[in-house]
Write a structure and sequence with these properties.
The protein is an all-alpha fold and 246 residues long. The chain is built from 13 helices and no strands. It has three domains: 70 residues, no CATH class; 90 residues, Serine Threonine Protein Phosphatase 5, Tetratricopeptide repeat (Alpha Horseshoe), CATH 1.25.40.10; 53 residues.
């Protein structure tokens, strides 16, 4: 068993080495035909079922380095991808670059990368980046900027990112005391198919209703939290219901 595992590890490292070598060759040459050939030999070593003849080699290097956890090399490769503005994966490269920079503690760099992805208008990556941009701006204390970023994600009507952004916007609005707008944002978040988002939105609605002196609405919202099956939020909802009944 140990020998088999060792062989698999060595084969995996050899495969990565081959992929890396061909991608580097693709980047270093000027002939488009040679670029395509070298890039796609690298793709074959990594995933034989997804061969494409016009893939940008820097993109493949970025994905490979990202996969390996080499943050600095992946960031450099993503930056190279972004030099090709018309490249189809540029928006995803910007969003991924933002994530890597954020996780490495470079929040200013992450903010700039996320903004590039937002500005791309990509139907999937722009809403994702708008949500992530809102998170960064909120952590940096730019609440108006965070609200605007969340609102942009909401306006996209993206099925995943819009409700997540609505939930985060509702939390900011509630903290600022703008309860009518917070209620509207929480209700927008209820469109999510993520039980975690739905449970937190209902929890927020319950708390606002309870504070507003509407126990019936609060009770209904807390029960909706329990109905989602979210264990963490269900505990809080049961505590809130007990206090409401007491």
């Amino acid at each position: 068993m140990r020998l088999t595992r060792l062989c698999r590890v060595r084969c995996g490292l050899r495969e990565i080495s081959r992929r890396w070598r061909y991608f580097n060759w693709a980047v270093s040459v000027k002939s488009k035909a040679t670029i395509a050939r070298h890039c796609n030999i690298g793709v074959l070593y990594g995933n034989p079922g997804t061969l494409k003849w016009h893939d940008e080699p820097h993109w493949r290097i970025a994905l490979l380095r990202h996969e390996q956890g080499d943050v600095s090399a992946a960031c450099r490769a993503y930056e190279e991808v972004l030099r090709y503005g018309a490249f189809p994966e540029a928006a995803l490269a910007a969003a991924n670059l933002g994530l890597l920079l954020y996780e490495s503690g470079d929040h200013d760099g992450a903010r700039n990368a996320y903004q590039r992805a937002v500005d791309s208008g990509d139907p999937d990556q722009a809403p994702r980046a708008a949500f992530d941009l809102g998170v960064v701006l909120r952590e940096q204390g730019d609440i108006p900027g965070a609200k605007a970023a969340y609102q942009r994600a909401i306006d996209s009507n993206h099925p995943k990112q819009a409700p997540r952004a609505a939930l985060n916007l509702a939390l900011l609005l509630s903290k600022a005391g703008d309860y009518p707008s917070a209620v509207a944002a929480y209700r927008r978040a209820l469109a999510s198919d993520d039980p975690g988002v739905v449970s937190r939105a209902n929890m927020g609605l319950g708390q606002i209703s309870q504070d507003a002196g509407d126990p019936e609405a609060a009770r209904e919202a807390y029960q909706a939290v329990i109905n989602t099956g979210d264990s963490e939020m269900t505990k809080l909802a049961r505590i809130a219901l007990d206090r409401l009944e007491g």
